[in-house]
Amino acid sequence: MSRISVLLPMLQSWSCHNCGGCCREHEITITELERQRIEGQGWVPADGIPADRPLLVRGAGGWRLNHRDDGACVFLDDGGLCRIHSKHGESAKPLACRMYPYAIHPAGVGLTASLRFSCPSVVQNLGTPITGARVEIESLAAEALQSKRAEVVCPDLRAGLEFDWGRLTRLLAWIERGLEQSGLSMSVRLQRLLLLLELLEQASAEAASEESFGHLLPALYATVERAFPGDAVEASQESRPQRIARMMLRQLVAQLIRHDTAETAAAGLSRRLRLLLDGVRMTVGLGVVPRSPDPNSVRVAFVERLGLAGQRRGVRFSELERGFGGGSPEIDELFHRYFHVKLQGRAFCGPAFYDYSVIDGLRSLVLMYPAVLWVARLRAAGEDRGVLQLRDVQAALAVLDHNFGYSPVLALRSSRRRVQQLAQLQQIAPLVVWYGR
Ligand code: SF4
Question: Whole-angstrom Cα distance, residue 381 to residue 383?
Answer without folding.
Answer: 5
